[in-house]
Amino acid sequence: MSEPFDKAIARARQLPADRQNAIATLILDEIEDDARWDVAFANSPDVLEQLAVQADDEDRKGLTRAHHEELSSRR
Fold this sequence. Notes:
The chain is an all-alpha fold. The protein has helices spanning 3-12, 17-42, 45-60, 67-73. It contains four helices and no strands.
C-alpha cells in the first residue's frame, strides 16, 4: 500500500462508521469507473484508429477548420 493511501485509510478509520462507509463507496466507485474506462479503451482501438484516419483525411481535403477559427466565426 502506498504511503498516501495508507494515511488516508488511517484517517478514515478514525471517522464514524457512516462516514467510513461513504468514503468506501466513493473509493470503490472510482475503482469501478477506472476499470470500465480501461475496458472501453482496450476494446475500441480499431474505432479510435478509424476516427483518427477519417479526421486526417478530412483535414487533408480541407474540410476542417482550426478550432480558433471556429470560435472567431461565432462572434
